Amino acid sequence: MRVAVLDLGSNSFRLQLSEVGRDGSIADIHQERQLLHLGGVVGSHGYLPDDSVRRAIATARELVDLAERIGCDHLFAVATAAFREAENGPEVADLISAAIGTQVRVVDGLEEARLSFLGAQASVRLEPGPVTVLDLGGGSLEIAVGEGARLDRSSSHALGVSRLHASIGGDEVLSPSGRRLVAEAVANELANSASASDQVVAVGGAVRELARVAAKRSGAWLPDSVNHFRLHRDGLEAALDVLAPISAEERVEEYGINEGRAPDLPVAAAVLIDTMTALEVEEMVVSDWGLRMGVMIDVLDLPIPTGDEVWQRSAEALRRRFLADDPHPGHVAELLLDLWAPLSHLHGLDDDHLRVVVVAALLHDIGKSLSLDGHHRHSAYLAEHAHLRGLEPHELASALSLIRYHRGGPPRRRYPPFDALTPDDRRTTRRMAAILQLADALDRTRDGAVEQVVVADNGHALLLRLVGAGAMPPSGADSRLEYASDILGRDIEFIVEGGPA
């Protein structure tokens, strides 16, 4: 089922088109954004002038036309701070509803906080316990605290980036006096706010742009998506230091910032820094998903994934999209689990590493949907640009390296995601590659003939008992076998049995 959500935000209008699976998984199909900065307009005038209304209607119609041409089964539309605060906001929402043929729901601040809270949890891997979600938009800042679908408290604050920037003069350069005005506004709004929970997730376009600036300054590798990037307060402060004194054009040229967000970005950084201070937060996890995904979850009554379910659903959805009828990737993941614990004394890896290897196992062959020739490269490319959920950027870099080099031999530093890893992460990734390659080699016939692997270690060799009718051991010349033997420090021998263990 394809579902589209049109988000009429205070900074931008956004279209999110997604495939919703029967298991409740959500996979991105298409995203589109048009920056209108209505929050700043409302902040200056108190209402939406005729030219802004015409532009809003035309933009909404264009985005809905696009969704219909791509194909969607259901369309939902919501409007946020600019529409609820403009004198003529409800009337403009009705005009847009008539133009697009779908009722636009103007959500209040607390409802916006609740929906963003739901959406963020579907995007990042969280530990059990309370989570705080911060949603920084053009017209307001929402704060929600709870666990799962349970919302314990929420609040909405007049600290939107477009609104606040307009209120302090709208200058591109954030001067010391402007910085003080932002700090005063945040302190006044959040004076009575309780401290955040231990887990904090931040959503919003400005948040994502700032995450990219912080990553660039620290030398961290990022894929297409900044999802699950950990944004520290000192990283934000460093970003503000370099962004505040330069022009919007220089921000675009030096840091690759989106032109529409460049003028407001220092104000966004200042708001986040001061919010973190008020809530006693040192680190936030960035989520690509928020309000729009929350709308899908809420309207369709989808289950909210918890913990490992986030990455499991995301990886499985991507595998189904490209290799729905091929059982090989799933079987390799099963064989990998047979090998993991019995070989732990040799590979020394933990459950965090297992998560990465299982993702790589599920996705290592998806490039065959494009071409058999060089499919390992295609698989890695597809996985890198698929906006996988539940993996931190360094974990994704490891998974991509495993996929790229699953055909044999060690991952190499000429591959950028692998080169970007720390020396320790490169060492563990090479060990993970050995286990994946061994599991892949065991299903050389790609028909699941090896139903189970039983491992024994005599100190000199690994004895792998392959159980299953028609089971066939890997060729002795298989480079995957050679690499696994080298990494594990054991010869590898096979015993083939024809029935269940």
Range of helix content:
40-55%
**Named CATH topology of the largest domain:** Hypothetical protein af1432
- Coarse morphology: elongated
Q: In angstroms, what separates the terminal alpha carbons?
A: 41 Å
Strand order in space, largest sheet: 8-7-6-9-11-10
Number of discrete domains: 3
Estimated radius of gyration: 25 Å
Give the name of the CATH architecture of the largest domain.
Answer: Orthogonal Bundle
Uncertain runs are: none
Counted by DSSP, the helix tally is 21
Characterize the main sheet.
Answer: 6 strands, mixed
In percent terms, what proportion of residues is strand?
A: 15-25%
Q: Quick one: CATH superfamily of the largest domain?
A: Hypothetical protein af1432
How does the helix and strand content classify structurally? alpha/beta
What is the typical, i.e. mean, pLDDT? 94
CATH class call of the largest domain: Mainly Alpha
Give a structural overview.
The chain has three domains: 105 residues, ATPase, nucleotide binding domain (Nucleotidyltransferase, domain 5); 182 residues, 2-Layer Sandwich (Nucleotidyltransferase, domain 5), CATH 3.30.420.150; 189 residues, Orthogonal Bundle (Hypothetical protein af1432), CATH 1.10.3210.10. Helix content is 48%, strand content 18%. It is built from 21 helices and 14 strands. The strands form three sheets. A six-stranded mixed β-sheet has the order 8-7-6-9-11-10, sandwiched between helices. Strands 3-2-1-4-5 form a five-stranded mixed β-sheet, sandwiched between helices. Strands 12-13-14 form a three-stranded mixed β-sheet, covered by helices on one side.
